[in-house]
Every structure is written in C-alpha cells, then in structure tokens.
C-alpha cells in the first residue's frame, strides 16, 4: 500500500492499494457512514428507452456496506452517492457500488482517525516492502503449498505424488522424479523471495538431493530452507510457523506475533490476568488492569467496541487487531472477539 496524502484537518486519507493484502487492510478501517471516493463507471441513459452507455466518473459514497471478494480480488463499497463528477452523469443520493482492485486509488474520509486504525495503514505500507513467505509441506503422498501474507495463510490445492508400493523400483523412481519436478516447478513459480519446504519424513531431503543433483536449485533465484514438521496438513503448516526453527524467517510477520499474544492471553485466563468480552475488558481498562487489547477486525465497526478502543488509546494501552478469518482470529472469536492481557 502507498499513502499518497493524509489530510489530518479534513480527516481524509488517500491511498493506493497494490495487493490483496492492501484491500484486506482497507476493509478493516472503513466503517458505515465513512466517505469513500474513487473513479468508477456509471450507465448513462439519455431517455427511458435508451439502452445507455458506460461513462467514467468520480464518485464519493457514504458507505453502508463493505465487502471483500477474495476470488475476484475486489473490495466493494456500497452506499449512496454524496458527490460526483461529471455532474451530468451522476445522480446524487442514488445507490452505487465502488469496486476497488489492486492498482486503484481511493480517498477515505472519517470524522476521526484513531491511532489504532492508522497503525493498520502503517503496517500495510511496511508489509508491502517485505518479502512474503512461501511454504510447501511435503511427504511421499502429497504436497501442500501455501503463502503467508500479512492477513494470514492462503493454502493452495494439494499436489499428489501418485506413488504406490505396488510399483516396480523403476516405475517408483520415475514417478517420484515426476512428483519432484512438479514441486520444483511450483517453487519456481511462487511469488516469494523466501520458501520453506518442510515435512515429517525423508521426502523433503530426497527432493533437495534430487534438485541439487540435477542442478535445479541454482536455477531458482529464491532463498530455500528445509525444515521438519509433523504432517502435511494445515495443522502442520501452523506448527511450522510457530516453531523456533523458522522464528528468524518470520520475524516481524503479523501472524507470528499473534500466535505469541494468543498464547500469553490463554495462559493468563487460568490465573485471571486475562479478560475476555466487552464488559470484562471495559472494566479492566477502567481499573488500569489491561496492558494489551486483542480485538478481531470483524467487530471494529461496532460502536461499543470503538468506544472501548478509544478509551484504551487515551490510556496508552496497546491495541492489536486480528484477522477474524485466520486461525488466531477464530480462537479469539470463541472469547467474544475481544480480550485483554
């Protein structure tokens, strides 16, 4: 994400979204009744019988609904038009949908910008400059590729080895080579600078040996690391992310910090140091008994949550915002989407 301008007096932030992660970050900070301005298209009809033609316009909406479409890589803002140009193609107070894609610029206007929302923007700008991490969990049956983004894990389709114990030694070796070549192709095409290949057995080591013997690793301009994990399922990938083995690779990654915070939060529940739910967190803040607030992005638009966060910010209490759709966010949801340490 790139911040073009921030007009603090008018509460307007102009940014360019460069990736899916940026769209996700923007979704977290735009609420109902905020104003969003961007380029769009409207169908203009000269008369009722006219089919009409699409015209390029600039629209400012009063937001009523925000929707992130991951499959289409689009962020949609639905609401009423409060301003637009050219005026002849814009009908004020009519409903419209602004579709924002990577590469688009938009302006967000709020009555106030609390620091915890500005921090989401700052993190998105910082994350856009860092290399992303690619992961492939592999054994002799299948491989599971995944990407680690600022918004969490994106797990791709499984790749099967099609190996069988019934095969002759020659057939097995030929099929294994085909499997390894397919994995190496995936590694070469992953849009990351760093890739971790991990698995429970010796397959990852055999893959590495095969690639080195064939001189294939030299052709991949990426940093490759080979580690161990207990399985090639989603749980194995999360286990890998939490392990000390890859802590240096994940340093600064949001999800790594979230795992650590959630662990501290869960540990504190048994001793009473941690609190969960709006009322308990609110009381902890009032009693100066909260050091860090953990909150899911799915509840940021709720007035009572924003009131709590505003008080926390005034009291200089740290606020950490989680992705409600990720592993840690789902855990926090079971504790009413908000907690404190």
- What does the overall shape look like? flat
Mean pLDDT: 91
* Largest sheet, strands/sense/barrel: 7 strands, antiparallel
CATH architectural arrangement of the largest domain: Roll
- Low-confidence region ranges: none
CATH superfamily of the largest domain: Pelota, domain A
How many domains is the backbone divided into?
A: 3
Question: Widest sheet: strand order?
Answer: 1-2-7-3-4-5-6
Strand content: 25-35%
Helix tally equals 9
Name the structural class.
Answer: alpha+beta
CATH names the topology of the largest domain as SH3 type barrels
Q: What is the gyration radius calculated from CA atoms?
A: 24 Å
Order of helices and strands: EEHEEEEEHEEEEHEHEHHEHEHEHE
User: Class of the largest domain, according to the CATH hierarchy?
Assistant: Mainly Beta
End-to-end C-alpha gap: 30 Å
Q: What's the number of extended β-strand segments?
A: 17
Topology of this protein?
Blueprint: E1 2-7, E2 12-16, H1 20-29, E3 35-44, E4 53-69, E5 74-85, E6 95-100, E7 105-109, H2 115-127, E8 133-138, E9 142-149, E10 152-155, E11 159-160, H3 169-189, E12 194-199, H4 203-213, E13 223-228, H5 234-242, H6 254-271, E14 275-276, H7 278-286, E15 292-296, H8 303-314, E16 318-322, H9 327-333, E17 338-340
